[in-house]
Write a structure and sequence with these properties.
This protein has a five-stranded antiparallel sheet. The two termini are 28 Å apart. The chain has helices at residues 18-33, 37-42, 70-83, and strands at 5-13, 47-50, 55-63, 89-97, 103-108. The chain is of the alpha+beta class. It has a single domain (5-108), classed as Alpha-Beta Plaits (2-Layer Sandwich). The longest helix is centred in the N-terminal third of the chain and has 16 residues, at 18-33. It is 29% helix and 29% strand. Strand 4 and strand 5 form a beta hairpin.
């Protein structure tokens, strides 16, 4: 079975105007179909384009997120690219592991929207 994580990642243009957003968003789509095609193909079921907010969302639930796995390495390399502010994208990432204190949360970019949040809840099944 192994250790599992839930991971949500957002990538969107680091711009101040909607005109720049659309150009950068189209460039993001091109990058995902060329430079990061392996990631797009591997995680296609977990990938969703949000045209209204010019955002790419990855929603990975119950995955084995081991750095030694080739698909995780490819995804991490992609994120390293987008975290570099030179390319003009904001990123938001939250990963929650099975252990209570296993939480990874970061944002990069100048114009971060802050779409992602962690919410803890108490449930009672009597």
């Amino acid at each position: 079975m192994g250790y599992r994580s839930n991971l949500v990642v957002l990538i969107y243009p680091d711009t101040e105007t909607k005109h720049e957003d659309k150009e950068s968003y189209e460039a993001l789509k091109t990058l995902m179909n060329t430079a990061f095609k392996e990631v797009a193909d591997t995680f296609s079921d977990d990938m969703e384009w949000h045209d209204d907010s010019s955002c790419l969302k990855f929603d990975l639930q119950d995955v084995k997120w081991y750095e030694s796995y080739p698909d995780v390495q490819a995804f991490t390399n992609m994120m390293d690219f987008f975290r570099d502010e030179e390319y003009g994208y904001c990123t938001e990432l939250i990963r929650i592991g099975e252990d209570y204190d296993d939480l990874e949360n970061y944002q990069t970019g100048q114009n971060i929207v802050g779409y992602l949040h962690v919410r803890r809840e108490i449930e009672c099944d009597l």
